[in-house]
Design goal:
Distance between the termini: 28 Å
Protein name: MerR family transcriptional regulator
Helix content: 55-70%
Organism: Paenibacillus anaericanus
Pfam families: MerR_1, TipAS
GO molecular function: DNA binding; DNA-binding transcription factor activity
Number of domains: 2
CATH architecture of the largest domain: Orthogonal Bundle
CATH class of the largest domain: Mainly Alpha
Strand content: under 5%
Strand order of the largest sheet: 1-3-2
InterPro entries: DNA-bd_dom_put_sf (IPR009061), MerR-type_HTH_dom (IPR000551), MerR_fam (IPR047057), TipA-like_antibiotic-bd (IPR036244), TipAS_dom (IPR012925)
CATH superfamily of the largest domain: Antibiotic binding domain of TipA-like multidrug resistance regulators
Length: about 250
């Protein structure tokens, strides 16, 4: 199905001016431009636009994105998988930092004891294997700019994200002794699904796969279970039930 520039802009949530700019710099050239000057976009154009926006979300500059996607060796599927892994790794680290901050708050209130080492748990950003792969594929400058963008996230946005995430984790931790199929558990896991789709784009299959990762990857398990032992497994089970029930 072919679409005009205004239709693409409305679909994606970006401005017509942005699409015009992408065309002007050769980043995304429409399939066709009519004699009247209308830009017509094809399904292939939309796939490329998704890829461009994925790189942009990671902080890559437009010039570097153009170099990457126009390289003859560029593999779109490989790039998408690497994007996903980089974002999951960042989220894992943020989960760890958020959990540490929560424990520090408890410590400051005298509710728990923390060692000096525990106070800095989750703050090690030096060993992201996916980031290293990205550096090898796309260069240091692109990845450095991506990290800089993440670092500039407003504190108010980080705080809102943190509190929303923690509230759902706490709710699920309170329910982890119940059946993952219960109405309460499914209502809470739907909140988690909706929350994730506010900051990303998760299909039911992806949501189900993410839940499995919570128990398959001990790093996820450790971070999540800080809210309550067995929470990762409970969330995994509830996410499977939610994804499979919602398909029917």
């Amino acid at each position: 199905m072919q679409m005009r520039v205004k239709e693409v802009a409305d679909l994606v949530g970006i401005s017509v001016r942005t699409l015009h700019h992408y065309d002007e710099i050769g980043l995304l050239t429409p399939e066709e431009t009519t004699e009247a000057g209308y830009r017509i976009y094809s399904p292939d154009n939309l796939e490329m636009l998704q890829q461009i926006l994925s790189f942009k979300e990671l902080g890559f500059p437009l010039k570097k994105i153009s170099e990457i996607i126009n390289d003859p060796s560029f593999d779109r599927q490989e790039a998408l998988l690497l994007h996903k892994n980089m974002l999951l790794e960042r989220r894992r680290r943020l989960d760890g930092i958020i959990a540490t901050i929560d424990r520090t708050i408890q410590h400051s209130k005298g509710e728990i004891e923390m060692t000096d080492k525990e106070k800095f748990a989750g703050f090690d950003f030096g060993s992201n294997p996916y980031e290293q792969e990205a550096r090898e594929r796309w260069g240091d400058a692109a990845v450095d700019q991506s990290n800089e963008k993440i670092g500039k996230m407003p504190k108010s946005g980080q705080a809102a994200l943190s509190e929303g995430m923690n509230e759902i984790y706490r709710k699920l931790a309170h329910l982890r002794g119940t059946s993952p199929q219960s109405e309460e558990a499914q209502a809470a896991i739907k909140e988690w699904y909706d929350f994730l789709n506010q900051i990303g784009n998760y299909s039911l299959e992806a949501f189900k796969g993410l839940g499995q990762m919570y128990v398959d990857d001990e790093r996820f398990t450790k971070n999540i279970d800080q809210f309550g032992e067995g929470l990762a497994q409970f969330m995994c089970d509830a996410m499977i039930v939610f994804a499979e029930s919602d398909k029917k």
